[in-house]
Amino acid sequence: MTEAAAELPAPPEQARTVFGDRFADALRYAGLLADVGVQRGLIGPREVPRLWERHLLNCAVLSEVIDQDVSVCDVGSGAGLPGIPLALVRPDLKITLLEPLLRRTTFLEEVVKLLGLANVTVVRGRAEEMVGLLAPVDVVTARAVAPLERLAGWGLPLLRPHGEMAVLKGDTAEEELKTARAALGRLGAVGATVVHVGEGIVDPLSTVVRVQVGESPGGVRAATRRAKAARAHRAARKGGAGRRRR
Question: Which of 21, 130, 141, 149 is most exposed, with the fewest beta carbons within 10 Å of its own?
Fold first, then answer.
């Protein structure tokens, strides 16, 4: 056990309630974050003492704003936050952890295998390069990735029509939303609000920015990228069929 891992506190009682029959897996994940996660630079050692309240529970309560049986893409998943806590509390969700860095995707794949998360897929790549390559999802999530305006440019194009981006933010959520409203409109958003979740579980409450899209997620540029990707896919299939015939 590393010095940082020794600082991991006992889980609060709320963790048993939130994670239910996956509580043992939540314990294992917390232990991995505090040990291997710190060793590989995925989280800072100073975060270990507040790992439960600030990270695992803070992410798990995001489930309060996500519908049943939908597909979710966690953009810039990093060490798996919020995607892995969501997967533990919501086995009904089909979750993709999207992360560009190899050392992080390696860790995520190890965690998914160790915890037996059959509802989770790890994909290495940048969100802006995945438009038209990943199947559109119902919900995009993220946490501590980028300012809202930039994050929306990455996340909204990954949504299906009438999907939603639900991202965890801090005290600047209202200001970020105010600043980003014009850009959100250009990206196909039709509504955006700030909500607070986790009553009785986390203090302070977790802040979530919810952005709903209409018929054109990501706007004109995203539609163009999707069309280009579709043409490339059709050409690749046609070329493959021609080679097989010969």
Answer: 21
